[in-house]
Amino acid sequence: MDVERLREICLALPYVEEKFPFDDYTLVFYVGSKMFALTDLQTPNSVNLKCKPEQAIELRERYVGFVPGYHMNKKHWNTVTLNADVTDKLISELVNHSYRLVWNKLPRKEREALITG
């Protein structure tokens, strides 16, 4: 998977915005006020995605392309190498998983504000 395909997958999800909150090359995808995916545009070979802790451990044990999230809470975030032993389908599923985890943790008021525009 390349970074442009990753970007398309993220932006296809409802209420998603892309921002550069840290610098000019770390692209971050938000739903509401919370991030669910990050990638480095200088070396776009990985993405950080949120994950349930038990699933994060399982994925790290099963795939070479999964490591604890770089500069993130290692219990809840994985860094996924885009062109390792991880299929594009799995990356797409995990982007959606990360999005859902973050969406479900948004305060109800914030979710409602996003829905009603």
- How much beta, percentage-wise? 25-35%
Give the overall average pLDDT: 95
- Main β-sheet: number of strands, strand sense, barrel status? 6 strands, antiparallel
Separation, N- and C-terminal Cα atoms: 32 Å
Question: Which CATH first-tier class would you pick?
Answer: Alpha Beta
Instruction: Output the structural class.
Output: alpha+beta
Number of strands: 6
Rg result = 14 Å
CATH fold description: Aspartate Aminotransferase, domain 1
**Are there runs of 5+ residues with pLDDT below 50, and where?**
none
**Count of the separate structural domains:** 1
CATH architecture: Alpha-Beta Complex
If you had to describe this structure to a student in words, what would you say it looks like?
The chain is α+β, with helices and mostly antiparallel strands and 117 residues long. The protein has one domain: Aspartate Aminotransferase, domain 1. It has four helices and six strands. A six-stranded antiparallel beta sheet has the order 1-2-3-4-6-5, covered by helices on one side. Strand 2 (26-31) and strand 3 form a beta hairpin. The N and C termini lie far apart (32 Å).
